[in-house]
Amino acid sequence: LELGGRMSNYNTTGTSWTYKLLGDWAVNDWLRFRGGYNRAERAPNIGELFLSAQQTFGGNNRGDVCSTLNPNVFSANPAANSGGAAGALDVEAVCRALMAQAGPDASFLYYGSPTLGVVTNPQATGSGGFAFPTLVGNPNLKPETADTWTAGVVIQSPLSSGALSRLRLSVDWYDITIKDAIGAQTVGAALQQCFDPQFNSLVNGAAGSVAAANAAAANPFCQGVPRNGTGALGNVQTTYTNDGRVHLSGIDAQLDWGHDIGPGTRTLNSVLNYQLDFESSALYPALPLIDYVGTAGSTENGLNANVFKYRVFTTVGYGWGPARVSLQWQYYPGLEDNGEASVPGGTPTQSGWPSYSLFSLNTSYQLTDDIGLRFGIDNLLNKRPPIGNYNNAVDEVTAAQNGQLRGGSFLSAHDTNGRRFYLGANARF
After folding, report:
1. 3-state DSSP call for residue 86?
2. Choosing a second label site near 240 at 20 to 30 A (CA), which of 65, 163, 220, 398?
């Protein structure tokens, strides 16, 4: 039984308490149970509190909501807006008011003029994109807290000899809830606080008059998402907030096995992560938690992107004397775009990414006690990264005009470098 506690005091946020209660029970020589509870608390760091304004580059997880083709419920798209055609016109009116602040021709360049027979460049259809937000610290932040529950079992083979004598399996369940999550505002959250009537009530009825639209556009959140001279989204102003909430749960499993065969030993190690929940809300409780499992995810609340339903990493090896050779296999299942989770009804025009396997070969040889050599081939089969997030509603001409991407691969999961070799040595003096 393990009990622990810690008290920390910061001159910025005051006193923080963390504590844990963990248990580990060896029932016998081959069965063990473990688990417990842990309360964690993280005070905001100096950057989150006092960062000077700096321009960053990042994703926009809601796309351009001023587009009449955007799929979000608070956009100018009458087919998607939760308020129907009237709600979409209200959003468009606020967009036009913001564009007027950027220049007299901005809304004309963006929306065109159907009465004059002039149509602007095709508007973006997706729920994603890129932006250049300016991020600044927030001295009013408070600590975030996390409650973690774990429960697991470890099974060691009860056999003292034979092919299964070195078999070991561990399975652990975890559940993590983070409250008052500290994170940089996403561009999508900043847009929603401007154009969604539940955050900016003046949006309702904004299409009634220029004065009503201007009043809605004067909202501080709207002033943080300005438009530029061409009507496109401009330099978004964001800061760090405590508005987020996160709930994660899943299962980790590891299998280890070894067996003497011939002159050496054959080994197997396989690690699996199965994601049960990956829920996040950037504006909790006003917005419900969204489960991103099986999608490209959202980077809101500081979370990692690419939430695979499961991932497997397996290594099969054979060692004899000073030599060893092993083959590694990484497997990633298919993944959908994040709009499948965040947009009601999904995004039928957006394709996901197919499953992906990656193999690598590793060898080593210990010449002496002090000198060892190693050689390997990463991406053994020269597997190309799969292309996904393909927008069927965008053709090459549209993509060239508005810069909307038609597809891409993952830099964080899929290998984009191709087959490569390495040779190295370790020497101890």
Report:
1. helix
2. 65
Task: Give 49's DSSP letter.
Answer: H
Q: Return the exposure string of 159-180: e unless at least 16 CB atoms fall within 10 Å of the residue's CB, then b.
A: eeeeeeebbeebbbbbbbebeb
pLDDT tens sequence across 132-170 = 899 999 999 999 999 999 999 999 999 988 889 999 999
One-letter amino acid for residue 148 of the chain: T
List the beta strands (DSSP E) in 57-143.
58-59, 130-131, 134-136
95 vs 117, higher pLDDT: 95
Q: How far is CA 238 from CA 137, 338, 402, in A?
A: 9, 21, 24
Angle at CA of residue 74, ends 234 and 203, nearest 5°: 80
Give yes or no for a contact between 44 and 11, defined as CB atoms under 8 angstroms apart: no
Residue 81 and residue 172: Cα distance in Å, rounded? 42
**What is the rounded CA–CA span in Å between residue 241 and residue 185?**
7
Joined together, the tokens standing for residue 33 give 């149970």
Alpha carbon separation from 249 to 176, 280, 308, 362 (Å, rounded): 6, 12, 13, 33
Rounded to whole angstroms, how far apart are CA atoms 98 and 187?
Answer: 16
Q: Are 142 and 154 in contact (CB under 8 A)?
A: no
Quickly state the pLDDT bin for 230 (edges 50, 70, 90). confident
Element (H, E) at 109: helix 106-111
Label residue 121 by pLDDT band (50, 70, 90): low
pLDDT tens digits, 385-424: 888 877 666 666 555 554 445 566 666 788 989 999 999 9
Q: State whether residue 132 is helix, strand or coil.
A: coil
Give the separation between CA 279 and CA 150, rounded to whole angstroms: 18
Backbone φ and ψ of 93, nearest 5°? -65, -40
Helix (H, G, I), strand (E, B) or coil at 120: coil
pTM of the full structure: 0.85
Alpha carbons 127 and 94: distance in angstroms, whole number: 19
Measured distance CA(269)–CA(328) in Å, rounded: 9
Let me know: does 102 contact 228? Beta carbons within 8 Å: yes
Helix (H, G, I), strand (E, B) or coil at 92: helix
